[in-house]
Amino acid sequence: MLEGQASPQGERDPIVSRVRWFLLAYLLVGILLVNLLVLLGLTENYDDVQKLELAVYVITAAMMAVARTSLRDFRIDRFSIILFIVFGTVLRIPPQSALSSAFGPIYYAFGLIALLLAGVVLRSRENRAGLAGTDWRWLVLGLFMGVVLALVLGTFASVFSRGNIRLQAAWPITTGGLFLTFLYHMGHSAILEEPAFRGFLWGYLEKHRWHPASIWQLQAVLFWLAHLRYIERPFTFWIALPVGGLMFGWLSWKSRSISASLLAHAAYNTVGAFF
Questions:
Q1: What is the Cα–Cα distance from 209 to 174, expressed in whole angstroms?
Q2: pLDDT single digits (tens) 25-53
């Protein structure tokens, strides 16, 4: 069977067919709409960003609900779905600059969607049995790789760019600030991107008999395009984002779950705040 050609199994599976439409909606919003609005300067305050993130969160939650009996096929395990739910509710930490306006209607809309998803996905033993297993060794490796790679790239950027390349820190660089920055990036980056790119996209293409190496490359390219708005930051756009996409994809590929890539993603962004 040719790579990328739909398999009979993929064509007949109603869950795969439904996931396809939500994936398309995710890519249209997450790649086209988000980049367009940012590049046009229409997302200059935190509330505007929250609305876009809510749209992405709702689409991702809908995919999880649709595939609730076979989330294992999309690399969603119990740990990752708990992270998705928890960081959509109580641990959705805003940047320090938006503390005064963070807990408005959009914040509670996130919580409502997260709680509804918890009720749909975790309420039955059958659904819980459909979740992938969690290997804690991969979680440790994900954190380690995220930290080390960000340190290497950040040091390289600082030395060779005369300090002009700097990622925006959501909180001050202190012990407490780093912890809050990690929570921020988990809730505003990792849970909004890993389930789609390294979970549902990967599982969908796998169902259609794509070779894992081809999926790995494609998800990294799409992840890179989803961050086109950073094109004015050369090191971030041309180096940090492609390398990150490949690393997160490799973790999902080899561990067969997105938990390690979730932790790696948040750690990668957090350490990047130093530079």
A1: 47
A2: 999 999 999 999 988 888 878 788 889 99
Rounded-to-integer distance, Cα 242 and Cα 237, Å: 7
Single-letter amino acid code for the residue at 194: E
Half-sphere exposure of 222 (CA within 13 A, CB side): 22
Mind listing the pLDDT tens digit for each residue in 139-151? 999 999 999 999 9
Q: What percent of the chain has pLDDT over 90?
A: 66
Residue environment code for 209-244, b if the CB has 16+ CB neighbours within 10 A, otherwise e: bbeeeebbebbbebbbebbbebeebebbbeebbebb
